[in-house]
Every structure is written in structure tokens, then in C-alpha cells.
Amino acid sequence: MRLTKEYIKPVGLNIMGITDKTRKILWGRSGNRCAICKRELIVTATVGNQSVVADECHIVSSRSNGPRNDPSYPPEKLDTYENLILLCRVHHKMIDDQCESYTVNILRQMKANHEVWVSRNLADIAKPKPFKLRRVKQNIPAYLARLMTGKEVLDLVMHAYAISMNNDELEAREEADLVGGFLQNVRDLIDIGDDLEPMDLVKATFDLTGSLEELEHAGFFVFGGREIQLLEGGIAVGPSEWPVAILCVLRKDNDGIIHRNLAQFEEGDV
Q1: Predicted local confidence at residue 191, as pLDDT
Q2: Which end of the chain has fewer surrounding CB within 10 Å, N or C?
């Protein structure tokens, strides 16, 4: 029976992928509306509880087997404003399922037309406030728990809107391939997780468990947690939650790892 669990302090982590500045430009110019159906993308379901029903969609996919992928497209431009279009989740799935009809040129023209529509039709509405992400002290995890199974990793990243990653300094190409491959696979789940079928989720969980075992055999532990940031601005009445998954790969002998007795920890002994 396992009597201890490892934790670390979440220090020095940086959000990867689409930058906050790019998000602000995309959401601001899109007017909080889907570029196809014009539906509002931050909606209030109940009093004090907002829901984000949008996807920041890649026009040219960042995945080699993704819709409209172009191997010649510069990798550094994949997460830029020019390669993103804001859509509701229904139309995100539609353009990816029908990528032969919704080509790169068509999507870019739709995006441009939508931004003209936003400028013309929302000009008389109160000027939207700039979008910004705000961290809330009580929402920042005090510790990151060690992830032992693929299910724990999948539960962490599913329905997160961004991911923050970090890892110890690597000493060999084999380590870089192992750690980098794991982090890339997890990041891809952020983008496609909601579209996976049950069988795909089961396979992804199994593969993640295998990756954790490979990392442990190579001398690494994986830690994770979740921080709820707040997205503010636009024309929304109040802030909406913006969950960020935190993932960290450390060597087993890292001084930041804290070993806690599970029985004491569960009893609230901190």
C-alpha cells in the first residue's frame, strides 16, 4: 500500500501556445461572436455563472494529420492571430469535418467579413473593454500533486482553455525526445480533447499511463494542478472562468519535491 504522495510548489511556469495578447486581439476583433452564426460566445447560464462556448480555431492545423494542415506553413505562425478564427463549438466541428469545403482561403475571407460586420453592427454599442486574464490568489494551487496515471493527466487537461508547462534541465537528446513528446501529446489533448470519441479517450488514457511509466523509468516524475483565472473585458457583464492546466516534469531528486504522509495529508495536516 502506498503511504506517501509527492507534491511540488508551482514556481516558474509559463503558458505555452496562443499568447494572451493574441487572444485579446482575436476576441476583441471578433466582438465575442462566432464568425459564422454570430452567436455570443460568453453567455450567462445562471446568476453569477458564465459559460464560454467558443473555440480559438486554427485555420491551418498545428497537427500533421489535422484539417487544412500545410507542412510548408511556418511553425512560428501557427498560433498567431492571422491563423486563428473565433467560432462556436458547433461550427468549429463543422469546418473541421468539412475541411474540403471550408478551405484556408474561405476561412480567412469569412474571418475578414465577420470583423467588418462586427465593426459596422456593434459600433453603436458601448465600446468593449480590452480583454485580459486576471490571476486570483486563492485560485493558485499551493502545491502540484504527482500524477500517477493517464486518467489523472486526462482529467487535468480536459476542458482546460490553456496549459502551463515546465520541466527540469535535460541532459541528453533521448531525454528531450521523451519529455518533449509527452508534453506535446498533452498539449494536443487541450486542442482536440472535446472532439475525441470514447474509444479515443480510452486509448489516450492508456498511452498516457505508458508515458508516465517511461518517464519514471528514465528518472522523472510528472506533477500537475489547475488554476482558475478570470477572463475580463469585452461586452460581458462580468468575468468568466478561464481554467489553466499546470504540468511540470521534474527529476526524482529535485529539491522542490515534498514527500507527505497520505494519512496526515488527508486529515488536513499541512
Answers
A1: 78
A2: N
